[in-house]
Amino acid sequence: MHLFAYGTLVFEDIWQLIVGRVVQSRAATLRGYEVRRAEGDLYPVMFESEVSDESSAIENVPGFVYYDLTESEFQRLDDYESGLYYRRTVLPLLEDGTVIRCDSYVLPQRNLQYASELPWTQQWFAQHAKQRYMQRLLH
């Protein structure tokens, strides 16, 4: 199975800490979703966008597709992602235009209160939060 990751797992050192090995990956984007900071925390939450007008500007969620993960690796990822999310099938678009079926961790509607109004980007995390986040992971 493949994984579309959009948040902390796109950082190689965090990926290695959780999964324990390098896997083939490619940049991808996912349409129809939003990413925000978790309420009162450093990590992101992704949920389906409520914008229903196809002509409106929906930002693509950038991330990576990680290929051919094992069941035990997905179990480690499930444990890392906690019960806040559910793992569901999504269809991100690779840079060459190919759509690929993979799983991703999505915040369900019942947990939307955990999404703040603050945006979360990989750049923001790298500059302002990653060091503190890594300290929490290592302790």
From TrEMBL:
Gamma-glutamylcyclotransferase AIG2-like domain boundaries: 3-113
Keyword Transferase listed: yes
UniProt keyword annotations, A-Z: Transferase
Any GO molecular function: transferase activity
Organism domain of life: Bacteria
Classification via InterPro entries: AIG2-like, AIG2-like_dom, GGCT-like, GGCT-like_sf
Entry keyword Transferase: yes
Annotated protein name in UniProt: Putative gamma-glutamylcyclotransferase
Originating organism: Adhaeretor mobilis
